[in-house]
Amino acid sequence: MINLFQKVPSISTEELAEKLAEPITLLDVRTPDEYRDGHIAKAISYPFEKIKRYQGEKEELYIICQGGVRSKKAAKILKGKGYEVVNVRGGMNQWHGPVKGGK
What we know:
Elements lengths: L9 E2 L1 H7 L5 E4 L3 H5 L6 E3 L15 E4 L4 H12 L4 E4 L2 H4 L9
């Protein structure tokens, strides 16, 4: 049973920008269309609907979405599966760095 009340650590988009200098795994849980409209270069598209099936390495994962709601839910699901997760507060709405794709 996944405990949706468990605490998940979170960072700001400014802190994420600093982390991107390191080799991190950043999962973008928005829809494929949202991802195509513009995403962070290191971000891997992994739509929220599929997150329960995620089977990546048991390394620290950073999770981002558009506004922070889906990523927080995804982070709790992944934490329940034994992953070390960090939610990106505010998501792409708060991201001011470069993006790939989009217009």
